[in-house]
Amino acid sequence: MKRVLAVMLAISLLLVGVSFSKTVVTFWESMGGDLGKTLSQIVDNFNSQHANIEVKAIYVGSYNTLQEKLLASAVGGGLPTISQVYSNWTAALMKSNVIQPLQTFIDNPQIGLSKSQVDDIWAPFLKANTWNGQLVTLPFNKSIYILFVNQDALALAGVSIPKTVPELIKDLPLLTIKDSSGKVIQYALGLRTTVDTYEVFLRQNGSDFISSDYKTATLNTPVALETLQTLVDMMKSGDVLGQGGYLDGPFGNGQIAMYIDTSAGLSYTSSSVGGKFAWTIAPVPAWKTQAAPFAGTDLAIFNTASPAEQEAAWEFVKFLLKPEIQAFWAIKTGYLPVTQSAIDTQAWKTYAASNPMANILVSLIPYGTSDPGIAVWSQIRNDVGTLVSDAMFFKKTPQEALQIAQQEVTKDLQQSQ
């Protein structure tokens, strides 16, 4: 009996030793609700397949909260092993020298990625995660701006989905419905009166807030003025519902026939519509080009973690890039698959066969554009956003708004140099 107890004790101690040998990876994330549940499933799947690693996904809160916590921890300590990051956060964190470039893992002959595996990631995402020729981060949850369309409303008005901005403008009065008293009961288009809307139309018009070398503000240009004036004119027409909040609700109750937002809102839109009418998605109407912005975050590993923790986090990143995991993530959340091989999986093919919108999203990826990876980008967006909102609510003329925006963004860029 004593011998049996001794053996059992030895086994117990061995098991305890095994559990203590696990490398723990702390993962700060901002995926709430159903998105968080899907991420938890992926994390549990990874942990079940890696007995020596435990990823602990820690929901930090909103993106703003996550940004504040990361930047504070970069100075005061306490960074996680891995985290979601926007590219401008990455730029700021690189200044603090706390990010471990993922290129160091990619190039490792034992645990790295082959050229074909790297090339499997869509080119626009690779570009957005590259600094000075090195992949510093890798894409995680990515969406793209699209046009949401009430097909029944367009059919009733006898119009097709607008493919260009001039077509969109022409269709606005045709899709606006008023009651006998003149009150609008269906607006043609919903627009969020935010910096994002201006950025979408400005990118489609072939420009941006700053020059391609990130050194000069470009808001005093004819194209910047044309873009903002067009948005203001649409607001003045009475055919556009403008508000700061999300538009899936007004779309679902028939208050607007179309609206522009990211593909991350697909599940919310589906819930809001609830089968009341036929709807679909389409590319944002083109202007001089087709260059709708991407939204969403990347993944960064921090060099404040031990080498073992960093390598364990890298194993998790590689797991997330697997075709079947990318397909699962995209199908469950509405985010874009960041690898091309994901759309070759049987799971994706089955999903896309009954969800044509999925193929529309994938077709847009090669044309998508990303925000500049500079630390001051958040401040630039804030400054431009305030002035764009003032113009869209007629508090300032487009000329006045852009003149001030040019000055503010110039200051932002000077302070960052």
TrEMBL record:
GO terms for cellular component: cell envelope. It comes from the Bacteria. Keywords: Signal, Transport. Pfam families: SBP_bac_8 (PF13416). It is found in: Cell envelope. InterPro entries: Bact_solute-bd_prot1 (IPR050490), SBP (IPR006059). Belongs to the bacterial solute-binding protein 1 family. PANTHER family: ARABINOSE-BINDING PROTEIN-RELATED, SN-GLYCEROL-3-PHOSPHATE-BINDING PERIPLASMIC PROTEIN UGPB. This is ABC transporter substrate-binding protein. It comes from Mesoaciditoga lauensis.
